[in-house]
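ugh finaly. both done.
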Amino acid sequence: MHHDYDSQRQYTLQHDRRLSAGSGHLQCEGVDLPALAAEFGSPLFVYSAPEIRRNIAEIQQAFASHANTRICYASKACSLLAVLQVVRATGISIEANSANEIRRCLAAGFAGNEIVYNGVVKRDEELEFAIRQQLHAINVDSEQELLAIDRISRQLQTPVRICLRVEPNVRAATHEGLMTAFRAKSGVDLADAERICRQVAAMPHVRLCGLHMHVGDQVPDAEPFAAATRVLVETARRLESTLNIRFDMINVGGGIPTPYRYASDRGLGGPDNMQPAIGAAEFADAVIRAVHAWRQDIEICIEPGRKVVGSAAVLLTGLVSGKRKTLLNEDGSVEGQVDWRMLDAGFNAIPDYKDWYFYVYNASRITDSHNQPVKLGGPLCDGGDYFRHGPLGEQFLLPEASAVGDVLAFLDVGAYQLENQTVYNAQPRSAAVLIEDAGHYRLIRRQERFDDMLLLERDLA
């Protein structure tokens, strides 16, 4: 297992389009990563604009056979303004999941008609704001939400485009918390779709443009997407015929997985969906084949998030201390020894620490063999604040010479990690750097300061 992991490290350095070695250090797009940690502190997220553009181009190419495709980046994956601006410059659209996410999209330069609005809970004030922005579509999650949209659009005398989100009842082989099309809180029952859609005819400002769904996140195979799209298409076909309408669009959501264990990796590590068998091409083929069996002119809307930014960032964390501890049984007998390495990033920085697999390399000694088993612990008081999925079960592999002051790199942390950071134990949220092109970078979010943490509590009198 040691050999497999070290072989993968060497293969990555030789073949990865983002990463390389220089002067013994790990580089991203030609930028020295330990030097960035020295300049801006750690933990530090480092995003690659070229990788975001490459990922979007991959999705565009995958859907090239259906010209009328609208790619809406799921901004919840990473909503940093600088990242949204990189996405916008590629010409694609965007998806938001709250009124404030809509505001972020607008602040990044997206027009209202480039935004799709999702969410299972949309308060009246959020719907009013969204309707005023003349969005491309609001994905309606319930009958009550539709009635609220009708009421607010009448008050505003403003047209609004909607899709009805339905649950296709398709299970996917991913983490249960990431399934959204099977026994999920999202969407309405297929059996209720016709009754709900019929109500739109009496709504003067509401236009029903199509149906929406989302199968789930990090789904490792194509069949759930194909099956769910067939359900969505059949429902849309039936509604068009029964209600004598013609849909403008069909929104199949996102879910294109990111390989957290690469195809070349022959070792072990993490849940099965960390090494998916599909990418954008297989996702697109499954969707397009099902839609073209019905109509070829309709707009296909997709909402990829993880696929756009997942591989576009690394987290740099400092090795602060280390210690060797004895594993004792209850009777006092010795079971073994554990070599701990303590980092300045824990589950405050990487919330997916329990369920995800990340390659972790010593960026300060990237050309050294990674063959020393260690456990990686974070700075928080919780006994559970350590990383679970390494190449040796709960153990990771680092160079034997790893020392205090070294910088470790967690790969492929671009999606959902920075967005879900906490300030538990008063740990500040991390700074972020954007590498704009080879060798050029800038700070796009500073590290949170103590005064920032008190802003919501001070000056209340």
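ok and the 2nd:
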Amino acid sequence: MTTQITADAPPSAASSIVTDRVQRRATLPGRITRTHVPGRDGRLHVTRPEARRDLSVIRREDILRIVGAALGALTATGWLFTQLLPFQGVLPFALIAYVLFLALFVVLISFDEDRVTIVDRVMAVVIHSAALLLLLVMSVVVVFTLVRGSDAFLQPNFWVEDLSVTGPLEPLTQGGMAHAALGTLIMISIALAISIPLGLLTAVMMAEFPSPFTRLVRTVCEAMTALPSIVCGLFIYATYILMFGFDQSGFAAALAVTIMILPIIIRSADVVLRLVPQTLKEASLATGASHWRTVWHVVLPTSKSGLMTAIVLGTARGIGETSPVLLTAGWTTFFNANPFSGAMVSLPFATFTLVKSPEPTQIARGFGAAAVLMALVFLLFLLARIIGGKGPGILSPRQLARVRRQSAQDMERIEARAAHDLAPTGFAPGGEARPTREAGR
């Protein structure tokens, strides 16, 4: 509600009149001071205070609007598909229904809300829709893989046997993917053992010791993050196998996987290390600590959770690759625990090979291998989250209890030392009097 003040007096006189009235009304109990905004014509406009809008609360009206817009969009799209539009299929129906849903939702909000609230609600709906779509796609992929491979991985022999005595026509009660799971674990373990120290040291060098060489290394790492996986396999095949004369093995595949995951770990760790507040480093240096001790005791512990995330990203990239393993590891149906001798197969390569077979049992074994790979990746991610812990400054209940116990022990030690210093004068073991702080006083 806006009240316009007009008078024959000039704007300065009208301004003084309004100011006097506002000051008198502000002294009265129960009065709300109004805002005075000069208009374009030079006159003052008295407005009521704007009501505070809470955009973070989901009200019942918002849910009713979403449901109403969704129902209206579905019915309108169904009528358009059956009467007017020549489109067919689920994808055009979903796209048109979603566009109509947003339009109807905007119309319903515009009856009661202003433009700021409309934009906020629409963006919230779009973001939540994208998250729901991503979750739906991931669920479909996981469920489809589990359903297609359930006939294979539900058999007990699938987890403990290999395919050495199992032919394509053998039933699913014979053979398994244990040799491929073992090969995957060996390959990724060797790759991580090489890439984690090199990646973290390189990231520390780029984040803490800037130089022209550092900028060159960062540029090369950024370019290698988009390197095709087949190029990594070709490089190891041309050098390690053809040039040096070694055979295809699990170690050769691990080297190819290392080339893939090393730039990812370096770039992710570099970003995490540069996010550490500069004030923490300055505080450590102010206490007299060296640069290396500051990095070791301040920077790395502070960014531990982010560094584990970088390692997890690299692991996820390398554990599911097929092209480098295809050229460097070879194919075998036997157990092989020696990564330096003989061919070694991995779960992605086994999946790629088995699903190409025309036999239903082999296809089921391939999807079962993919299901085992997903379970293995989930376990590795869970282990990384447990090792990485929470963010800096956030303690788990066990860590908080350990800190409290340590504080209690420190307090007991301080009290015991204080009691010893304040003890009465005694005699030293040699028979001479030993003055204490009280005796000195």
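summary for the 2nd one i guess: Confidence is low (pLDDT under 50) at residues 1-15, 25-33, 427-441.
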